[in-house]
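Data deposition worksheet. Section B asks for the primary sequence of the deposited chain exactly as it was used as input, without tags or linkers unless they were present during the calculation. Section C holds the resulting structure in token form. Section D is free text for depositor observations; keep each observation to a single sentence. Incomplete worksheets are returned to the depositor.
Section A, Depositor: J.P.
Section B:
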Amino acid sequence: MAVALLTNPTLHSPFLGRRLSIRGNLKGSTPRCFSYRPPRCAVDTPYEGSISKFPRVNVWDPYKRLGITTDASEEEVWSARNFLLSQYAVHERSAESIEAAFERLLMSSFKNRKRTKINLKTKLKKKVEESPPWVKNVLTFVELPPPVIIMRRLFLFAFMAGWSVMNSAEAGPAFQVALSLAACIYFLNDKNKSLPRAAIIGFGALVVGWICGSVLVPLIPSFLLQPTWTLELLTSLVAYVFLFLACTFLK
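Section C:
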């Protein structure tokens, strides 16, 4: 094979279809440029070529972008957002566009709610200012505490009422009523820093509640009441309500 190459330096290649010479005048030969074309495969396809894209990415109106009407409810907005994300969450730009439209609608809904609350407060304040003088004088003795305080005191007096009902077969509610009155006076004194004023309001609430209970309880049909529920017990339940209102909402 080596002897054949040396004697006949011209090769015939069946793959290239032409002769390659290893000898010749290299100086006189013209240089040739060869272009290399790599084989194509599935990896050479553009990235995200097979991923579905959100068709309304550039739509400015958030309602139209999510495909809902302008009078859509908050549940419909959430449903449209979740449905679109389930289809286009793989495509990052599509997901960002859907989330941006959803956030805009959410912020708009929050601002509308806040504006509505402000309008309600303004209307209520205006009605109070237009009310008769005696209504204004009554409202000066009333205040609205934070919800946490309301819930704590409501739990306390509800516990006293439940304790009285559970203990109705053994004894009367005198002890629970005394504890409730003491708690009411304590809360009022903590608010007003005046023990005489707190005692007067506390005893007044107990008396008014007891009188109202004595009038209202006999009007309740007897078949709605348990045999162990006496008039004293039911009257004390009404008194708990008045004590709660006095120590929570009165100044």
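Section D:
Confidence is low (pLDDT under 50) at residues 1-7, 10-47.
Residues 82 and 88 are 10 Å apart (CA to CA).
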